Amino acid sequence: MSYWQLALWIGVPFLISKARAYFKKGPGRPTRPWSKWDTYSSLFLGLVGLIQLALCTRRQPNFLGELSVHPEAPSFVVRNNFRAYMYRQYPTWREGSPNTELTLPPEQSRVSDLEKLYDSLKSADQRKSYLRYGHDAHTQCSWCSDPKDYLAFVMPSVMSSYAFMLGCLGVGTLTWRKALWRTYGTIAIAIIFLVELYMISLHEPTFVDKNGVSSSLFNGCFVMRHVAFAALALMAAAINKKDEWTDEDLLKDILAKNQVMYNRSQAYRLARAATLGDTGMRRKFMEYYKEREAVNDAVNRDLEYKEMREKALQSYDLEKLMEDAQHLSGQIVQSAIDEGLIERIDVTQAPPDISPAATSLPNGTTTVVREEPAVRSTRDK
Q: Is the pTM for the entire model greater than 0.85?
């Protein structure tokens, strides 16, 4: 299977689903407001991306590259280039001398480390190991003797950078707008780690650049890793989840609003029962609704009101509104059934019946109110 066939096999179903979603658009949904935590999350991820870019520019040591030698060059070429490099960097240096003229202790230590490194890089296998596992593994590891030891020495520093990026990604994706990057970012970091591990431990690269000079594989992996981390952090900072509410979010919002409406209706029934339990309050209650009914009846009979009402109704497509409402409600309920959310709604328990005819008072007694006959409308008279 070629790369084109693999790309088509993966990409065509994705494009078909996107095209179907584009042409099959449902009713518009409300957008969520942008919160301060979304801003903080984007700024934090952007800062992480800039830090990773700054790490890419940090120069990594490559002693063989500074000597301008091929990893498989003869020993005398490496020796001559090393002597020229030392005479250029330290004019008072003499091969085999104790370097007493170098008065500064840091320079003495540096010269001693370079001489030890040169002694360890005389063989071609050691040069390849140096380019594979980096400068620190061959200068700081005192117990390393084979490739497994060098790999064990460099893995903690490599894993610490991955752990740092995973932690930053976890903190930066706490908001719902960045939640998708928690999954995508973890998968991307795992892929980057596997690729780097393959390049360091399994792959047999050419340790030279286009000029035939030794090129450090470890330094190249270092740059590649931090460039990938920077790209991932900047993409997570710039790309957010869609502002549209999901079906689950809409269902939760509808349930919360229905709960509020139910609580208000219960409070209204309690207030009505308390009002009708008192003779004076009951009389005022009846008078108030008689006045409201008379006013409403007068407004409904007004010709100007009727004309304005008909014009207002003509500006709306009632059939289209009803179809959209049915489509939206059906989609929400079906999604709730498919995802199992509807099972969490207890529809078997009926709400408590708070009737005006029998209402419990706070002191534990029960007040029975005789229902008055309904007030006839002035329209029926």
A: no
